[in-house]
Amino acid sequence: MTRLVIADDQAMVRAGFAALLAAQHDLEVVGQAADGAEAVQLALSLVPDVVLMDVRMPVMNGIDATAAIAAAGIPTRVLMLTTFDIDDYVFQALQAGASGFLLKDALPAELVDAVRVVAAGEGLLSPRLTRLVIEQFARAGAGQASVSPSSSAPSPSSPAIEELTQRENEILVLVAQGLSNSEIAGRLFLAEQTVKTHVSRIFMKLGLRDRAQAVILAYERGLVRPGSDG
């Protein structure tokens, strides 16, 4: 059973999300928060699998709350809820430790699927959002960015980077372009389980938490560039 906390300052939105998610046989809503500070408190006390986190909230915004949860070292993953105007938030939230993003106008089935994907540890970052992140790097300059505030990601000359096989490098690029395991399997004519194994090894070698961090790291290391969306 996947345990969830929903954080949104609008009571009607929280109630709607809670009703939808609680109706799923494999999901359980264990807490609701009206602001970022309360979301952090619930995450630390309940240690849910996923926090559904709104970006704009009083007391503490969703990005700062996400950073606090990530810094606590608990296994809770954060799925950010954003409006269409996300350019300024995607990059910041990834750095803070978010594992995925979902637009607030997403279909109910998309919300349920997104929660399951993030809970499974795969991270959720669409090709469109991936391009936004890369474009943000292009504007700000990769030298001003890091994988996350508390990250110990390897440097460009790190042996961990050199330890990646040619296939692993190829798969990392596709992950960073927003492709799912099944899409990568189809692109490379591999079994999906084989791709999943490769992805797990890549993340272990590079000290990455999920696909969201892979996007940033791949850009920092020059493996993907603006416009390299496959």
From TrEMBL:
Residues 157-222 form the HTH luxR-type domain. It comes from the Bacteria. Residues 3-119 form the Response regulatory domain. InterPro entries: CheY-like_superfamily, NreC/VraR/RcsB-like_REC, Sig_transdc_resp-reg_C-effctor, Sig_transdc_resp-reg_receiver, Tscrpt_reg_LuxR_C, WalR-like. The modification 4-aspartylphosphate is found at residue 54. Pfam families: GerE (PF00196), Response_reg (PF00072). Coiled coil: none annotated. Keywords: DNA-binding, Phosphoprotein, Transcription, Transcription regulation. Signal peptide: none annotated. This is Response regulator transcription factor.
